[in-house]
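Module 6 notes. Inverse folding takes a fixed backbone as the condition and produces residue identities as the prediction. Think of it as a translation problem where the source language is geometry and the target language is the twenty amino acids. Below is one complete input and output pair. Work through it position by position during the lab.
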């Protein structure tokens, strides 16, 4: 009888967990870990179109192949072949740091050849791995390492 009761409690707990929905996370970064933007940075090398290869889930993440478009005054994100869904006026502050609609966005890493990058926010609400086209396995691992180095909880990283 005790084992039947224990099994019933376990089943009820699993059903409750299944109905609970996804965990809401406001920061994917350990804020006790220092974060650093790319100190030596040429904003012209960052301009253009980027594929969002991986990122952390949030309410703004579309159900599509996300892209990022950067120029000196505007940073927009959207779906490949579709319309922008987020972003806005951007201002370059120096040392790989931007504000987008007054929110910070930092370039944490930019590959020497300008074909891959990692961006994030000091509060950890956003982080992403970007590529101009495809990204090799070793470059992807390097980008994940950069997120980890800056305190990001890479277990939550989703590859697109």
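Target side of the pair, the amino acids:
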């Amino acid at each position: 009888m005790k084992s039947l009761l224990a099994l019933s409690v376990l089943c009820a707990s699993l059903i409750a967990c299944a109905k609970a929905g996804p965990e809401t996370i406001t920061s994917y970064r350990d804020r006790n870990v220092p974060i650093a933007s790319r100190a030596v940075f040429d904003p012209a090398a960052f301009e253009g179109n980027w594929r969002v290869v991986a990122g952390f889930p949030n309410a703004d993440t579309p159900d599509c192949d996300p892209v990022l478009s950067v120029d000196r005054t505007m940073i927009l994100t959207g779906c490949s072949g579709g319309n922008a869904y987020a972003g806005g006026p951007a201002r370059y502050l120096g040392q790989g740091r931007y504000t987008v609609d007054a929110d910070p966005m930092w370039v944490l890493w930019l590959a020497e050849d300008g074909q891959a990058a990692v961006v994030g926010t000091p509060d950890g609400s956003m982080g992403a791995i970007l590529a101009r086209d495809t990204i090799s396995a070793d470059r992807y691992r390097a980008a994940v390492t950069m997120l980890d180095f800056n305190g990001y909880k890479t277990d939550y990283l989703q590859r697109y």
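Reference fact for the lab report: The helical segments are 2-19, 43-46, 137-149.
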